[in-house]
Model the fold of this input.
Amino acid sequence: MLSFFKRKTYPKYFKKYLNSFKNKKPKSINKTRFVVFDTETTGLDTNTDRILSIGAIAINNGIIDVADSFEIYLKQDQFNADTVEIHGILKEGNIEKISEEKAIEHFINYLKNAVLIAHHAAFDVKMINSILKRMNLQKLKNKSIDTGILYKKLEGKQNDHFSLDKLCEEFNIPLHDRHTASGDAYITAILFLKIISKLKQQRLLHYSDLFRTNNSKGLL
Done:
C-alpha cells in the first residue's frame, strides 16, 4: 500500500526538463525561445503509428536560428511501405537511426521549456506524448502554437482552413525539402514569422494573443 504513495521517479534528463518550468519564462514574443518542429510518421493514427523522424529549429529574438536546430531518425520497428513515397525514409539505408527512448531523450534535452510551434500541432504533440506514455513519463509541459489556428487570427481569415502547402503558396514560401521533418519545421518557422508580421500590421499583438485557440477541423 505504501508503494502507491511513493513519489514517481524519472530519469535525470526528464527531471531537469520538469525543473526548467519552475523558472519564470519571459512573457514577450521577442524574448521567448520558440521551437518549431515536425514529425514524419508511419501514418496518422496517434495510438498505433510511430514517429520516423523529428526535425526542429528555434526562433530566438524573432529570428530563425539555424545554429539552434535538431534532427533525428528513429529505428523502425513498424514499417509502412505506403508512406515511403511521402517522406522517403526507408526501413534500412545509410541514415543513422536510434531507438525511440534515445530519440525522446535527445529531443527533451533540446526542447527544454521552449514554446512549441507546428502546423496541426495537436497531431505532432500527441505523437511525442505517445512515446512518453510508453516510457511511463509525463506528457509534454510546453505551451504550443498551431500555425493553422494562428493564421485564423488574421482579419478575414476566421473561417479559412488551409494546408501547409496552401499557406506557403499564399505567403510565397518556397517548398524546399517538403515532407522531411527538418524541411517542414523550417518552412513552418518562416510561415510563423510571416503570420506574426502580418498580425502586427493589423493590431497591437501581445504574447497572450498567440495562445487563443479555435476548434480544429482535422488534418489536411
